[in-house]
Amino acid sequence: MFSQYMEELEKNPYSVEDFVEKLFWRTNTNCENFDPELLTETFNNTIKDLKILQERQQRKCEKLEAALSEEQKIHARDIEKLLERHSISVECFHNLDEKINSVAGKIIHLGEQLENVNTPRTRTAEALKLLNHMGEFLVQGPVVNDIFTNKANLLEAADIIQKLYLVAQDLPADKFGAAKKKIESKYDEVERNLIEEFARAQTEENIDKMKELAKIMSQFKGYNQCVDVYIEQSQATSYRSGKDVFESIAPLCRQHYGIIKQVFSSPDQVMSKFILNIYQLRIHQFVATKLADDSKDDYKFLKTLHYLYLRTMKLSNDLSEFIKDSNDDLLSKLTQNMFAKHLANYIEIELRCFDSICSMEVKKFYDSKNHQKKQTERFQDLKRDMQAIISARTNINIVQIDNYGGETFLSEELAINLLQESAAAFERCSVLSKEADTPTNIIKIADILLKYLLTEHCDYAVDLGIQSIPIADTKSAPQIYFFDVVQKTNTIVHLLEKTYNASIMPYVISTSKYSDCMHKKRFCMDSIENKLDNGLDRSLNAICNWVKIYLQNEQKKTDFKPETDIDTVASSACSAVCNYINSCIAQIKKTIDGDNLSDVLQELGIRFHRVIYEHLLQYQYNTLGAMVAICDVNEYRKCVRKLGDSLVSQLFDILHALCNLLLVKHENLQEVCNGETLNYLDKTVVLNFIQLRSDFKIIKPLTASLKTY
């Protein structure tokens, strides 16, 4: 039992409630016969057991604490012994350190005494040796000492002649003139031999010998010649064969930078000179040759200039790791000096080239269409409107309209070509222009793009599209191609907007040129937008005018006032009109999108409603005719549902309700007029429709009461 208690008490987490609950269920296994006395006895026994268990655990804890206390005392004694031994070791270490320092001081003192004795002796020996060699130069005739005549002793000869040269500088010329000349001559000879030996060692890739010779040459006047020899030999055959010189330069510099650091005492200066030689000779010559070859073709010249400038800038960035911070603008200056002549008149060439390309692309497009651009006549719209009025009143068609076979004279391919060329020009401009001139130059290029893409192409095509909108006649339904003009114009404008956002805005948005740039674009856009609005207005007028004329000519009076029984179905004129309107709606949905689509469809629906409303007011209706009119209006309602405009649908619902006034019994007119649909209409509109009933004269007295609704 104790082990069971221990198992439960050692659970983590321990819960008193769970312990009591389990004890309860072990005591009362049968819930139906609850025995409180048994439960009380069980609880009392458990409490006794727990007390016994507590006493046992308490005794065990006391034993463990006593053992722990004893163990602590043992460890404390061990630590005291260790500390005592440690203090003895530290004291011995300090004593030993003092003895070592004392001996070291005596040794240093002895070394200094020996050096003080040896240094003068060595200097005296060197001075004596130098005087002996000086004596050889004071004697007339050539120097025959093996040190100066045997190339195997070149390094020793270099050391001696360099010191003699320095000494000779202080000798008076009147007494030692001949000796000084002999020393200078031998100095130059040894210097040449050292340079030749350095070049030979470089050819043999003997780094140690090169380093030794460079160290000696650093004391000579011709040290720079040694550096020049290294640079010339390194760059003489190291360029890869091929047209692109840039590919080999970075690996070449990386390879020789490691050698230069090993050989020369001032590697950064040597490396700067190494790179300077590459830029001023190899790259400059390569750039000049390439640009001279393409100078007669502006387009090739610009592409080559842009490519070479970018490659040179990338190369400068790659080589910047070899340039010290104190000279970090060296590569930038070298690049600017190299391209300065070509960048001075860059923008003039860019503008001339881009203008030429745009002009050629536009001309090529119109040539492919066999079209000669026309000058837009002044007052063209007024002239056309007057001709239309005369034609309508005289029934003589004097309006000559050319729809060019449905050709819109708008090309997305042409627009894409112009925009691609402009994007390339903007990219070149951002790279090749000075930072202060970039916004101005970008706008100059954008002006040319607006001129050819919007003014010369889109604006001109919209003018032609407006002129090709037909005048309605009864011979055939007008084919409206202007919607295609709207679609293609919107596509081109969207492409232009993308180009502006990607290639123009980043360079002008935070500058003073931003407003000027947006004003020029908005001016061109507004011109085209106004013309598109005008064209859409004329197109909708052409559609609705044809419907009006067609119904006037094809709708018979007997359709709405038959003298005999007829089938109450929509009239043939209505069916023809609905078919035509459906085709127009489909064409508009295909060519126009967004908010423009809903606006155009709503306007078409409103104008179409006006035509039908005015058309129905021209007839008189008997009962059968009213049913035909209602059938016609139902067909019109089905037709305009495709517009998806609630206002237009509401207008035709009201028109349908007005047509019901032609059919209802006269005693129900008051009730119908007070209905939800007609209640808010002007009473004049309702009375006008009631007057179209064939029995209006009979029911006229009854209509007086309608004035009160």
From TrEMBL:
Keywords: Coiled coil, Exocytosis, Transport. Residues 156-699 form the Exocyst complex component Sec10-like alpha-helical bundle domain. The keyword Coiled coil applies. It comes from the Eukaryota. GO terms for cellular component: exocyst. Belongs to the SEC10 family. PANTHER family: EXOCYST COMPLEX COMPONENT 5, SEC10. This is Exocyst complex component 5. It comes from Polypedilum vanderplanki.
